[in-house]
Structure formats: C-alpha cells, structure tokens
Amino acid sequence: MKNIKIKNLLLRPLTMSDSNDVYAYSKSKNVGPRAGWKPHESIEETMEIMKAIFIDKENIWGIEKDKKIIGSIGLIDDPHRQNDQARMLGYALSEDYWGQGIMTAAARAVLAYGFDTLALSLISVVHYPSNRGSQRVIEKCGFLYEGTIRQAEKIYTGEIRDVKAYSMTRAEFMSKK
Ligand SMILES: CC(C)(COP(=O)(O)OP(=O)(O)OC[C@H]1O[C@@H](n2cnc3c(N)ncnc32)[C@H](O)[C@@H]1OP(=O)(O)O)[C@@H](O)C(=O)NCCC(=O)NCCS
C-alpha cells in the first residue's frame, strides 16, 4: 500500500507510535459517535483498537499534517455488497481541523487510489442522517445517493440508526476526470 501525498497532507500507514495522536482525537465525544463508535476512554483502549483495525491493514491510512496524525481514512469491505471489487470508504478527523476541506481532499485522493491503483469497480460510503459534515464531504466528492437504509445499524449505545447510502462506480469516476 502506497503513501499518498496531497499538498500539506500525507496519507500513510499508522504505527503504534501514533497511538498518542490517535487517542487525542478519538477521546472526543464529537468524533466517534458521529461515525457510530464509542469515544476512547484510555490510551490502552486506543492501542487495542489500533491493533485490531489499523495496524498492518491494507488500505487504511493515517492522515498526517505537520508531523502529527490528525485522522484516518480507509477502504474496507462493504457489508452490504457481495462484490470483491467493491470497497466502502470510512474516515474520521480531529475536530481541531474540521471545516478546512481536509477530509474532502483526503477522500478524493483515496477515491483516485481505489479506482486507479486498486482497479475497484465501486466505492460506497454511508453516513447517519444527522451527520451533515460527512454528507457534504460525500456530496463534494460526487457520490450518487442510493437511498436511506432504515434501521440499518446498531451503534455502541444500542441505538438503532438509519444510514444514508451512496456509491460511485468506476465509470462515474472516470467520467468526472
Ligand atoms: C465528517 C468529517 C470527516 C468532515 O471533515 P472535514 O475535513 O471537516 O470536511 P470538509 O472541511 O472537507 O467539508 C465539511 C463540509 O461540511 C460542512 N459542515 C460541517 N458541519 C456541518 C453541519 N453541522 N451542517 C451543515 N454542514 C456542515 C462544512 O461547511 C463543509 O461544507 P462546505 O465546504 O460546503 O462548506 C469530520 O467532521 C469528522 O471527522 N467527523 C466525525 C467523524 C465522522 O463523522 N466520520 C464520518 C462518518 S460517516
């Protein structure tokens, strides 16, 4: 998996030495719950989660700015699609950096990587209806809205949430180039 450079950002694999940076934004009540995950309660919890979902995983990048990890982005298996050439986009960013266009730039770069380098046929993404920031990232990237999957996910609190589902095919990506 390659590093991806975008202006003043570097997308690169995470290592355990990034744990403090990841914990710093993952402990916030404003970050994880918007994506359905519980705020981290300790650096030890961050380290366990990093081992389980970030370290040595293909196509999961840390977002580095000024030598610090400020978020993550990745392409993971899509639980809604039986297609080896489809992946689902996911991301989270430290709230200190919201509203500067960072995730839109990172998502566009990862879309290009997914279609050009991984030769994927489709990339999907979902957000909770209340998550307007994520919705705007998705819209600005040019995804097609597929519909709302009602009562789709049980989050860490036990609450069942709808998700708004979007996708982009390879042909749609190529036509936007
Ligand atoms: C969603 C998230 C990744 C956005 O990152 P970001 O770098 O701030 O995104 P950008 O700056 O590229 O774009 C954000 C857009 O949302 C808009 N926005 C942000 N909050 C908003 C709100 N409450 N209502 C309406 N629009 C909102 C911004 O104005 C901007 O749109 P614009 O360029 O048209 O003005 C970030 O807020 C985050 O990490 N949230 C917590 C985790 C999360 O939600 N992950 C995604 C799960 S689906």
UniProtKB/TrEMBL annotation:
Cellular component GO terms held in the UniProt record: cytoplasm
Pfam families: Acetyltransf_3
Its EC number(s): 2.3.1.-
Superkingdom field: Bacteria
InterPro entries: Acyl_CoA_acyltransferase (IPR016181), GNAT_dom (IPR000182), N-acetyltransferase (IPR051531)
Domain N-acetyltransferase: 9-167
Gene3D superfamilies (alphabetical): 3.40.630.30
Keywords: Acyltransferase, Transferase
MF term (GO), any: protein-N-terminal-alanine acetyltransferase activity
Similarity-based family: Belongs to the acetyltransferase family. RimJ subfamily.
Protein name: Acetyltransferase GNAT family
Organism: Acetobacterium woodii (strain ATCC 29683 / DSM 1030 / JCM 2381 / KCTC 1655 / WB1)
